[in-house]
């Protein structure tokens, strides 16, 4: 690992959960941790309800774009977190993999997305404390 750990968040469309997680990590860790996100079948745009949910807590993810998952992105990351969507991620030795089982915000209203957003924050805070302690 380099001096600065890097985390890759992966979900199918890279439009909701992984973007919210990347937004939280960038917001809470600042530049201490490198943040990436990607999807195996990226959507055309970020889920507008995910954008709205993050805006409610003062985090702007409107500039983010769904990106295709590449083996290079996985290789360049220390921690790879999948979002409970059964993605076939390339597996590389020496990487830390976690699967966060989270409801998919796609097609959900803001009331359903808020608890997903808040659960992601809790998990990201725990991840930051683990990475800071290494």
UniProtKB/TrEMBL annotation:
InterPro entries: Ptyr_pPase (IPR023485), Ptyr_pPase_sf (IPR036196). Keywords: Arsenical resistance. SMART domains: LMWPc (SM00226). One of its GO terms (biological process) is response to arsenic-containing substance. Residues 5-130 form the Phosphotyrosine protein phosphatase I domain. PANTHER family: ARSENATE REDUCTASE. This is Arsenate reductase ArsC.
């Amino acid at each position: 690992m380099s001096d600065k750990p890097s985390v890759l968040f992966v979900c199918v469309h890279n439009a909701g959960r992984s973007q919210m997680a990347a937004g939280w990590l960038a917001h809470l860790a600042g530049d201490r941790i490198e943040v990436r996100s990607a999807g195996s079948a990226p959507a055309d745009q970020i889920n507008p309800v995910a954008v709205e949910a993050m805006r409610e807590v003062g985090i702007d993810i409107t500039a983010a774009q769904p990106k295709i998952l590449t083996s290079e992105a996985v290789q360049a990351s220390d921690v790879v977190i999948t979002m409970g969507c059964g993605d076939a991620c390339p597996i590389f030795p020496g990487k830390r993999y976690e699967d966060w089982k989270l409801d998919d915000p796609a097609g959900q209203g803001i009331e359903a997305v808020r608890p997903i957003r808040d659960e992601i924050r809790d998990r990201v805070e725990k991840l930051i404390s683990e990475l800071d302690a290494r």
